[in-house]
Amino acid sequence: MASSKSQKKSVLLLCGDYMEDFEAMVPFQALQAYGVSVDAVCPGKKAGDSCRTTIHEMSSQYQNYSEVRGHNFILNANYDEIEPSKYDGIVIPGGRSQEYLAMDKSVQELVKSFSNSGKPIGTICHSQLILAAADLLKGRKCTAYPGLKPLLISAGAHWVEADTLAKCHADGNFISAATYMGHREYINHFIKALGGTITGSDKKILFLCGDYMEVYEVVVPFQALQALECHVDAVCPNKGAGDICVTAVHDFEGDQTYSEKPGHLFTLTASFEGIDASSYDALVIPGGRAPEYLALDESVLKLVKDFMEAGKPVASICHGQQILSAAGVLKGKKCTAYPAVKLNVVLAGATWLEPDPITRCYTDGNLVTGAAWPAHPEFISQLMSLLNIRVTF
Question: What InterPro entries does the record point to (predicted)?
Answer without folding.
Answer: C56_PfpI-like, Class_I_gatase-like, DJ-1/PfpI
